[in-house]
């Protein structure tokens, strides 16, 4: 599918409500459970998404629009949520994520993204030259990937409890 800003924003605007419906008020066993060693729980995913809202998508879009490839993006700390989320409730993280996402989508709508601007390039510290289109499409795929990750972590909590039905549940593979 070809990238379209309106379609991207439609998905991005749904992520907070999706996670809210899934996690708000859920027992800790669901929100803190993970898939095993060195994996993330839905709680960790929320913290990671919040950090991305603060330091990744819109800040990098602005760098592309204002500086192009002359200024590289700051490296993204994929594990910043470990310290930043400590002591916060899932509900607090859900509220923070929703607020930040709303603000960032409002900002995105004011950037006047055109097909010409989507072709502008920036410099990723690991990947090199990237376009604004690629950044924004990645934001959408990143959201969907982490929603799937949260669902997978939750599903794994019943890996043994489902008994023989496990063979019919690809999410438990």
Could you explain how this protein is built, in words?
With 173 residues, this protein is mainly α. It has a single domain, classed as Up-down Bundle (Four Helix Bundle (Hemerythrin (Met), subunit A)). The chain has nine helices and two strands. Strand 1 and strand 2 (128-131) form a beta hairpin. The longest helix has 25 residues, at 132-156. The two termini are 28 Å apart. The model has no long low-confidence stretch (mean pLDDT 96).
Q: Which descriptors would you attach to this protein?
A:
173 residues; mainly alpha; Four Helix Bundle (Hemerythrin (Met), subunit A); two-stranded antiparallel sheet; 9 helices
Brief digest:
By secondary structure, the chain is mostly helical. The protein is 58% helix and 5% strand.
Counted up, domains total 1
User: Structural class, from secondary structure content?
Assistant: mainly alpha
- The named CATH superfamily: dinb family like domain
What is the CATH architecture term?
Answer: Up-down Bundle
Mean pLDDT across all amino acids: 96
Task: Order the strands across the largest sheet as they lie in space.
Answer: 1-2
CATH class: Mainly Alpha
From the alpha carbons, calculate the radius of gyration and give it in angstroms. Answer: 18 Å
- What kind of sheet is the major sheet? 2 strands, antiparallel
Count of helical regions: 9
Gross morphology is elongated
Query: Whole-Å distance between the termini?
Result: 28 Å
Task: Tell me the helix content.
Answer: 55-70%
Order of helices and strands: HHHHHHHHEEH
Q: And the CATH topology?
A: Four Helix Bundle (Hemerythrin (Met), subunit A)
Strand content: under 5%
Which stretches are low in confidence, meaning pLDDT under 50 for 5 or more residues running? none
Count every beta strand, where a strand is a DSSP E run of 2 or more residues. 2
């Amino acid at each position: 599918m070809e990238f379209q800003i309106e379609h991207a924003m439609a998905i991005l605007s749904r992520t907070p409500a999706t996670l809210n419906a899934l996690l708000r008020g859920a027992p800790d066993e669901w929100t803190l459970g993970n898939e095993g060693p060195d994996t993330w729980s839905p709680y960790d995913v929320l913290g990671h998404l919040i950090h991305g809202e603060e330091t990744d998508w819109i800040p990098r879009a602005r760098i592309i629009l204002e500086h192009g490839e002359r200024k590289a993006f700051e490296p993204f700390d994929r594990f910043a949520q470990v310290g930043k989320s400590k002591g916060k409730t899932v509900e607090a993280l859900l509220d923070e994520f929703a607020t930040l996402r709303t603000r960032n989508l409002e900002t995105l709508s004011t950037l006047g993204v055109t097909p010409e601007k989507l072709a502008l390039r920036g410099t990723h510290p690991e990947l090199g030259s990237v376009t604004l289109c690629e950044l924004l499409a990645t934001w959408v795929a990143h959201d969907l990937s982490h929603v799937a990750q949260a669902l997978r972590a939750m599903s794994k909590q019943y890996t043994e409890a489902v008994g023989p039905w496990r063979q019919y549940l690809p999410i438990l593979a």
